[in-house]
Amino acid sequence: MESTLKRTWSEIDLDALIHNYRTLRKRVGENVKFLGVVKADAYGHGAVEVSKTLEAEGADYLAVSSIDEAMELRVNDIKMPILILGHTPKEQVERLIDFNITQAITCKAKAVEYSEEAVRLGKVLKVHIKVDTGMSRLGFLVEDNHFDTGVAGIIEAINMPGLMAEGIFTHFAVSDEPGEECEAYTRHQFELFTRVISAVEDKSGKKFDLRHCANTGAVANYTEMSLDMVRPGLLLYGYGDFAKKLGLKPVMTLKTVVSTVKIYPAGTKISYGGIFETDRTTRIGVLPYGYADGFFRALSNNCELITPEGPARLRGKICMDMCMLDLTDKPGVDVGSEIEIWGKNNPIEKLAETAGTIPYELNCAVSKRVPRTYIKNGEVIGRELMLRM
User: Fold this and answer.
1) CA 176 to chain centre
2) 78, 131, 277, 340 from 336: Cα distances, Å
3) Is 360 one of the catalytic residues?
4) Which of 206, 262, 269, 272 is catalytic?
5) What is the pTM of this model?
6) Candidates 21, 33, 39, 374; catalytic one
7) pLDDT tens digit string along 24-54?
8) 359 pLDDT band (50/70/90 cuts)?
9) Active site includes 39?
């Protein structure tokens, strides 16, 4: 659905996405498969359009968090393999199989459930085994005295009827963090993971087609850990220090417009709580962008947005549907002027740091009422609004 309202919108630069994909593909080498992580609506960029672009570019796999996210891609004609990283209820096994969706298995109990359901259906479910090497979240436990039981559990799982174990993977906890301690921890995770794979393959006589562990931090810092496939997340979308060092480009620009301009005398309190008070005659622009659109309230009175005449300071508390910008020294900025919230002139990393968070969270917070505009070769090729009408 298209929006008929020029309010607040994001511009998704598909050329930047293609540049990033090709740059990362070249970095890891043609013999290493590439999995594009498109969970959470491709980190707010639009999973369908991002997936179509990656598929056309020759990416090998996609990763999502749930079967609903996987089905969104399938019903929009995405044919490439999809891996679900999160839990799927056993009642959905038939849909997984029928739509050629790969499921992560994180423990023996889930393997049993999936196996029994696949056998009942007389079908085979493709799976990837998740190994917990130190993220302490999901996966077969293999650390220290869990090693032998973890390996035995994985062997049991891959031998269960109705399951075809195509891959095995783990997730690094601090591969994106600096320092010797974090490097040592990452290398320990990698060594443990490869040791588990060797033990499972030696004892079972079976080989995994896809071994993968390299997330954003590992693709940037430890290319020797690429194995059979890499799965960069935010790096693919061009944010963070690693992206800059690798010459990657931000894919999303978020914009809004000035909807109203008002003049207030000195001594006027602006917005809820009156945390900002004018100290002179002040020209305030009201922007139709608030926390319901994804603008973190922690940024209230504490950041700058970019006008056609340069940076302008946010004033007062961010409201649900709007915020206020000080345009006193920007006489040419008026109703209808475009404002860059983040993008090439106002890096998302700067806003994230000010808000005490990470770019991932700001991208994912862009709400469904903010239209996505897709740009390729400098032209708009599509618009998408997630609201139901």
Assistant:
1) 15
2) 38, 53, 25, 13
3) no
4) 272
5) 0.94
6) 39
7) 999 999 899 999 999 999 999 999 999 999 9
8) very high
9) yes
